[in-house]
Amino acid sequence: MPLHKTATGRTLDDRTAVNRLFDAYAGMLTARQRRLMRLYYHEDLSFGEIAERFGVSRQAVYDGLRRSVREMRHLEARLRVLAGAAHNGHARRCGAAGRLAAVERAAARLTASGAATRPLVRALRALREVL
Concatenated DSSP letters for the chain? Predict the structure, then answer.
């Protein structure tokens, strides 16, 4: 597969993989890289549309995206956050459920003390449904 297809995620599988990388490693990118990634992968803007917003060439947009994706792939190769998540998914869900239960108990204590916790309780219920 040519470099441009995987570098900018033209196939659905590539885009999905890049979005997963972005979810895991966005915090390690520069603000400019994050913005480029969001515009291209989340808002589905073209290189030309992004180039106009940044006042740069389409090639500069392409190069910036390629570097960002390459950097995130390098980070994943070193840190294996996504690979570990696949293997530890069940354990993580169980751990999250336990932590959620602790937060639910704390919210119940706040409610009993008269604190206004309706939005918190609703959010916890929604999270419980997801888990």
Answer: --HHHHHHT-SHHHHHHHHHHHHHHGGGS-HHHHHHHIIIIIS---HHHHHHHHTS-HHHHHHHHHHHHHHHHHHHHHH-HHHHHHHHHHHHHHHHHHHHHHHHHHHHHHHHTT---HHHHHHHHHHHHH-
Tens-digit pLDDT profile for residues 89-105: 566 666 677 777 778 88
The residue ranges of every structural domain in the chain are 3-79, 89-130
Q: What is the pTM of this model?
A: 0.59
Fold (topology level) of 3-79: Arc Repressor Mutant, subunit A (1.10.10)
